[in-house]
Amino acid sequence: MTADGALRVLVAHNAYRHAGGEDSVVASEIALLRRHGHAVIELRRDNDEIDGIGRLSLAMQTLWSRRTQAEVRALIAEHRPHVAHIHNTLPLLSPSLHWACARAGVAVVQTLHNFRLACPQAMFLRDGKVCEDCLGRTPLPAVVHGCYRGSRGQTAVLAGNLMLHRGLGTWRHKVDRYIALSEFSKAKFVSAGLDAGRIVVKPNFVDAAVPDSGERHGFVFVGRLAQEKGIATLAGACAASPGEPIRVVGIGESVSLLRGLPRVTLLGALPAAGVAAEMARARALVLPSIVYENFPRTIAEAYSCGLPVVASRIGALAELVEHEVTGLLFNAGDVADLARAMAWAEAHPERMAEMGRAARARYEARYTPEANHAQLTAIYHEAIARRQVP
Question: Quick check: bond before 262 cis, omega within 30?
């Protein structure tokens, strides 16, 4: 590290075509590091590049990218980073960058934003239900069912990537520290074969918001309008009974399920300030996912606004939302149970206000930028120390 304790960090990320929570987390961490005086060197590819690449070439790059290796070697030679922090490598960066970093003696940290190292489809989801057929096993079932985008061919490439780098020892030997976003996620990756001793739990964070002190009313949903986010459950609960309105922030293919429902107002995509404003006025955030979430950033955003969360009792959500303390839990995919939870929230405004205060306290204790910076740099130092051991 430098004389003032600052680090030089190589951050590698393959950005998605439609920016989502993972892209936001990467941008926030880069800004956080720079704000604290660390030098950040970015290696970035963008999925918009895919349109100009043939299928065979793209498949080969997904398995092993010579371009990535050359770029990483050049960046390391020029900037001499202390640590490389790897986020998404699919499909253009590839795990060849792990090898380039390790060969240069640079410590490697990887954030496990999704379950791609255990499930080619990345969400343990098949036919609208949780599926763990590939967990800790060969990913052949995913190929048979075409779990990634309904394509056996594309799924085969991802399964091949996973098996190739299991066989090469990439995940065992070329990553010094993994970051899991919750204890639930860590347990799943341990079941998938990763070394528990190299996985550190560090949640996402958001910059502080000021909770609104006015009267709260109605509900808000923030996220992609997609099957896995439980939009069908939300639509069913809204249609099943009258009640306070729900304002929906986001876009996606499942928007048709919500269009025309009398309780629902569709707001489309909003900037961060608009999301915060919606959270500041709502009684609760509704998070009806039907898949294992790692750590939805919207939970930290809601807590920072003093907003309790009504969430599915599934995966990490049951860990991150404490029932009747920072929000309410309902059975995932259960329309009637979600409707009951929302009705209870409407009927008990004082209790929801208490939960909102507890949510804000939880944010201040766990999800602030300051707490996250301390955790992140500690992980970097652990990785550097491990890499330096002969």
Answer: no
Tokens of 19: 């920016």
Residue 272: name the closest of 307, 298, 311 by CA.
298
Burial class (CB in 10 A: 0-12, 13-18, 19+), 249: buried
Strand partners for 284: 219
* Distance of alpha carbon 177 from alpha carbon 366, whole angstroms: 21
Q: How are beta strands 129-130 and 125-126 bridged, if at all?
A: antiparallel
Is residue 52 within 8 Å of 45, Cβ to Cβ? no
Structural tokens at position 77: 């030679």
What pLDDT, in 10s, does the model give residues 3-57? 568 999 999 999 988 778 899 999 999 999 999 999 999 999 999 899 889 999 9
Cα–Cα distance for residue pair 12/377, rounded to 1 Å: 17
Per-residue pLDDT tens digits for 127-155? 989 999 999 999 999 999 999 999 999 99
Q: How many CB atoms lie within 10 A of CB 62?
A: 21
Neighbouring-strand partners of residue 43: 12
Per-residue tokens: 170: 């990439």
For residue 110, which of 94, 84, 86, 83 has the smallest C-alpha distance?
86
Segment 247-281, tens digit of pLDDT = 999 999 999 999 999 999 999 999 989 999 999 99
User: Which tokens go with 145?
Assistant: 């069912």
Identify any residues that bridge with 40 across adjacent strands, giving them in sequence order: 9
DSSP-assigned letter for residue 228: G
Q: How many residues does the chain have?
A: 390
- Numbers of helices and strands, H then E, in the chain: 15, 14
Query: Across the chain, what does the average pLDDT equal?
Result: 95
Give the CA dihedral 105, 110, 115, 121, nearest 10 degrees: -70
Q: What percent of the chain has pLDDT over 70?
A: 98
Nearest to 190 by CA among 228, 136, 269: 136
């920016």: which residue's tokens? 19
